[in-house]
Amino acid sequence: MDPELAIEPLTAERFAAFGDVIALSEMPDFVINQGYCNRFHDLARLESLGAGARLGISLFQSQRRTSPYMLDMMERHPLGSQAFLPMSMDPFLVTVAPDEGGRPGRPLAFMTAPGQGVNYHAGTWHGVLTALQGPGLFAVIDRVAGAGENLEEYWFETPYSVAWS
Amino acid sequence: MDPELAIEPLTAERFAAFGDVIALSEMPDFVINQGYCNRFHDLARLESLGAGARLGISLFQSQRRTSPYMLDMMERHPLGSQAFLPMSMDPFLVTVAPDEGGRPGRPLAFMTAPGQGVNYHAGTWHGVLTALQGPGLFAVIDRVAGAGENLEEYWFETPYSVAWS
Fold first, then answer.
1. Residue A145 sits in which domain range?
2. Total count of domains within chain B
3. Helix, strand, or coil here: A3?
């Protein structure tokens, strides 16, 4: 097993099996506010499952990670999606993995462009939030209440490493 | 009627009648990710009313407004809340008004601190998004589908003005 993960740019196509890229596109869906504002509409599939489940807005304030990042754990939320929206124009690192029989397979690593966010679909294996620069402030849209266990973690025997410059 | 609105700093107390201030506070609700991340949990009252109603994540890309800003129209969404989360660390102008018999009363003007967002409660009169600097990029969490008319506008005979330096 090669423990080094190459980083790719984040694109909707490459990320489609894991979730949504929340980003501007060439054409807005609506032009609003007397022409002053473009609206790019309904960009994420939000999920919140189980009795009493509810979506909410939270803030995450994260320390910055340095290169090389050792990816030793991935987690998933079977009962809800989870969106990360950066509140500064800084790229961040996104790691996801396909499920292989109830545990993460070989992860993929993506670097966002400034202004891109992501939404992990329910059940997608992902690494924890990895801010690389800036204030590390993110708005998170996820399931904030509801019955049932919504967190599953998997620790790798040998961590993967992700390096950037 | 004094057409000039003074600008106040945005605080949760002053904004409580209109919506939620989405911002860090002194104590996180949870410390997560092996101590690397503070979570400030469930900061906004999200509302999405009517048959088939659903919340979503959209992006707004707004032109910047210059001082003095002429506030000539306010709007409200009777069937849903609307949250604005800046995706850059730039302040923006927030205008709201109490309802007076089905139309906006005298507006209040607030300047956000960097990293603050707002969530207008359903039915709150507010001015349109007014970005003042930076890329003008915002994530918006609001009702993206559902039956019923969710927009009401009111045009002032005499606009209010809001000036900053």
1. 4-162
2. 1
3. coil
Chain A positions touching B116 (Cβ under 8 A) are none
Tens digits of residue pLDDT in A121-164: 999 999 999 999 999 999 999 999 999 999 999 999 999 999 99
* Contacts with B116 (C-beta within 8 Å, 6 or more apart), sequence order: B10, B21, B22, B23, B86, B91
Complex prediction ipTM: 0.97
- DSSP per-residue letters across B10-58: --HHHHTTTEEEE---SS-SEEETTTTEEEE---S---B-STT-EEEEE
Using CB atoms, which residue from B43, B54, B140 is nearest to A58? B43
**Angstrom distance (rounded) from CA A53 to CA A154:** 24
Q: What is the CATH number of the domain that holds B65?
A: 2.60.120.480
Q: Where does the pLDDT of residue B85 fall: very low under 50, low under 70, confident under 90, or very high at 90 and above?
A: very high
B8 vs chain A: nearest CA distance in angstroms?
22
